[in-house]
Amino acid sequence: MIEERKVVPYSGNMAAAEALRQINPDVVAAYPITPQTEMMHFFADFVANGLVDTEFITVESEHSALSAVVGAAAAGARAMTATAGPGLALMWEILGVASGMRLPAVIALVNRALSSPINIHGDHSDMMGARDQGWIILVSENAEEEYDNLIQAVKIAEDERVRLPVMVGMDGFIISHSIEGVSLLKDEEVREFVGKQRMFHPLLDVEHPTTHGAIAMSDSYMEFKRQQREAMMNAYKVIREVGEEFAALRGKKYEHIEAYKTEDAEYILIVMGSAAGTAKYVVDRMRERGEKVGIIKIRTFRPFPYYDLADAIVASNAKAIGVMDRAETFGGYSGPLFEEVCTALYTRNKFYPIAGLIYGLGGRDCNINHIEEAFDVVKKKAAGEEVPPVTYLNLQV
Amino acid sequence: MIEIRWHARGGQGAVTASKILASSAIREGKYAQSAPDYGAERAGAPLRSFNRVSEKPITLHCLVLHPDIVVVVDPTLLKTVPILEGTSENAVLVINTDKTPEEIRNMLDIKDRKIYTVNASAIAMEEFGKPFMNVPMLGALVKVIENLVSLDSVKEDIKATFGKKVSKELLEANLRALERAYREVKGE
Amino acid sequence: MAQVSDKPKFVTKGEIKVPPIRDLTDSREGIAPGHRLCTGCVAGIILRQMFMAAEAAGYTLVIANATGCVEVCTSIYPHTSWKVPWIHNAFENAAATISGVEAAYKALKRKGMLPSDKKVKFVALGGDGGTYDIGFQSLSGALERGHDFIYVCYDNEAYMNTGIQRSSATPRHAATTTQPAGKVIPGKPQPKKWMPEIAAAHGIPYVAQAAPSHFNDFMRKFIKALNTKGPSYLNVFCTCPRGWRAKEEEGILISRLAVETNYWPLFEVEDGKWKINYKPKERKPIEEFLKKQGRFKHMFKPGNEYLIKELQEDVDKRWERLLKLEQL
Amino acid sequence: MKGWRDLEIGALITEPGNSAEYKTGEWRAWRPVFNRENCIDCMICWVFCPDSSIIVKDKKVVGIDYDHCKGCGICAHECPKSKGDDESKKALVMKPEYLFREED
Q: Where is the Pyruvate/ketoisovalerate oxidoreductase catalytic domain (chain B) (predicted)?
């Protein structure tokens, strides 16, 4: 039986900080960066008031934040950090270290654009830059999802079949700084759900000394990468299992994708993050006008849910598809999500007209009009009309 | 769904007022959002903040383009920012000014729409000696928009938000300012 | 529940007596042979002396190693030379990494998740590249935060792991692959950065400079650092026969000459108080140190006397400063 | 090397000090030859050996670990009993490795 939950007015940052408090990690190392800063203010407040047992390391850079998290996770601790945009970029080198060492660390990521020009607002270029660094990537639509995903992330990361770090993204400002109703779990529920961490040859087992972070020459490096690929494939299953387990607690199921009104949809947009919410609203509105539209929201970006996505598209009546990317792949065809969608379909021998749509860079608003414009492009594509390979939405021309 | 846009200057507490509004609505079991439109500006620069309040879940995550209500916290913004942008003739304007709604209508040549005014600056100065017009403006807003949130919910939220951070005196001054504006706001 | 606020409470111990080395020969070695350090690499000696001291003081070391010669040569999968917990993360973050390990230790100890009651000390280990240069920021951060650890820099005065490129620890006029002794520019134009004073400026409880040739002094300092609560920084002279173009058997001799010429003074800074541990009765001229090393060969060419003079001036200036610091 | 399924996850090494399996003695061009009769067990060679290759038992030097000794010569160079020219009085003498390899 699902109990009535307490709904609180929280920003994304507050929700994430609350998840961290309830998870009560052993070590949190973080460096302030807009728009993540206030998440760490809230958490620091928990530390200062004895509401967590966490060792909070106020490091001098994001690079050191993740470096300390790597040290702590290898030591056997449950370790977390939080960052945004350029902070994640500064961590980049250590992202691969964490995943290569198979450490179950978790980053609460507030998605922010990368410089230059400097911009503090939300887009996915930070996360997409990190997409191939061996981290599991979960993307949240709203504050409650960020909260839920962070709690699940701990369990996913520490699963013996996975042992990979996880980053959980939410759009900077749009989610991180907006107040919404967030339904909270009870402290005991969260603690029971995440459980006590499992240690895999912890560095601090001084009775059994281990060497972490060895150098692997060309005779074994590739084998370790193959192991990581296997772990990612396992993660695909584990994320689903953890989602099901979480559903028993939450009454809301988290899957790799969320197909919204796609069953009979002729035009489908693929969206990730906060814009998915706006897109759902637009779908409802357009359906009132009798238009057969739907969206697919991507929640798991790594491992990418090729099967789920292709299944959902194949099961629909799609005539054409639009892929909305909140990041660029300069010199590529369209955005990173576009490439993944093409791969998902091509490898299933399914071919649909696909339109590339770039939106929301540097926090540029993506409202109802822009989603409708995106559907217009998809419709044109379906009708065989000429559309540019990539359409920038809400661009001043 | 009701959509609100706040106009203020950085440091005047409009973001906080907008948060309190969303917060109070959520406490009442409604669905609400509060989203500030942050720039790189600092205290003093014009800023906007948005609210959505609804009986049904809100999934929209974008700026409010067509506000049903516009709240102007700082009267000096009346002529400098496009406060009517995106509003329909049915929109409601709640303005901090010492003028009457008619005077504002004539001064800014506003057609249609419903105008309410309240001297929030005076209330703020009288109640706490500082130009924090956000809470009084919230009081006025609650009064003029029926069924948005109740004054009691807002009071509860102000206590929860400020209770730990400010002195008892300041908290009470805020509550007085809220109620005064609630009473003193005038419509045409 | 919550931990007591971690206001650093630094404690240092007074005089330390190092047991005679003969008594240390029974002790377990923390590092196994079979590592791939160059023939005659003095870093191997420094590590062994470090472990001798730890053993004498009853500590188990947990090490975070910056990328560099020692790291690469001791951990080539599937082999490790380490007999203690050891982690390598990256080049520039040994101090940040050990911060995380030390924080994890506190948290797990509190939760009762660490069964062993062994005395543990955290050590970050790096060469001069990982310390003076690329790892400078993370080192400064960790020192300032007051983690309970020892930072050991084995200073061989250039980036040896990548092929003898200059570092900020390279002395004036030394030839490196990125600042070779050319016709126009005779080696590195800038003097050596003085890392120990920078470390000391953090107000940490213990900073020392040591040399493996003077192993009693080094081990005493290492034990002092072990017994210090809070961060310590040790700057250790490390001959690199390959990079310095010196004879493999002369690594310790060169270390001794570095001390005897005042090129590498032995000193310590305990709670802000500077103390020179060894003052040569007759300071040897810098040439004696230089002539053993090919990296200084060009300085002995006719017409280049001024190069030696300038380096001697650097050494004298530093020594005079030390004498003044000692008076504070 | 093992197949990818059998390698330790994340390149972790769980056998402390197993580098001893790797024989760096192969690198040696010069061999330290130890003469027990001249040794005073001062342990200078032991404290300065970069490769843990001076074998000490019961506080006495008993020999050289030729499996790992790289032949740097620091031991002989630093040995207080190995100064001067008279080889017969020295405790450690460096000799070219080929002399011994040919005998093998």
A: 10-182
Contact residues, chain A, for C106 at CB < 8 Å: 55
> CATH no. for residue A283?
3.40.50.920
Question: Are residues A29 and C99, on separate chains, in Cβ contact within 8 Å?
Answer: yes
Q: How many domains does chain B have?
A: 1
Range of the domain at A378: 257-392
Question: What is the spatial order of strands in the sheet that A166-171 belongs to?
Answer: A55-57, A27-29, A79-84, A106-111, A166-171, A136-139, A300-302
Token pair for A129: 């830059």
Contact assessment for residue C248 and residue C241, using Cβ atoms and an 8 Å cutoff: yes
How high is the mean pLDDT in each 10-residue block of chain D (104 residues)? 94 98 96 97 98 97 98 98 95 95 63
Residue A12: inside a domain, yes or no?
yes
Flag if A179 and B23 touch (Cβ within 8 Å).
yes
Angle at A102 between CA A83 and CA A187, to 5 degrees: 55
A210 touches chain C (CB under 8 A): yes
Does any CB of chain C come closer than 8 Å to the CB of residue A209? yes
Which residues form the domain of B60?
A: 2-187
Please identify among residues 71-90 of chain C the ones whose CB lies closer than 8 Å to any CB of chain A: 71-72, 75-78, 80, 82-90
- The pLDDT assigned to C145 comes to 98
pLDDT in tens, A16-38: 999 999 999 999 999 999 999 99
* A231-290 residues touching B, CB cutoff 8 A: 274-275, 277-278, 280-281
Domain segments of chain D: what residues?
A: 25-98
- What number is the ipTM of this complex? 0.94
- Percentage of residues in chain B having pLDDT higher than 90: 81
Same domain, A285 and A224: no
Whether residue A1 is contained in a domain is answered as: no
Q: What is the CATH number of domain D25-98?
A: 3.30.70.20
pLDDT at A253 over 80: yes
What is the distance between the terminal CA atoms of chain A, rounded to a whole angstrom? 54
Chains touching chain A through at least 3 C-beta pairs below 8 angstroms are: B, C, D
- A320-353 pLDDT, tens digit per residue, is 999 999 999 999 999 999 999 999 999 999 999 9
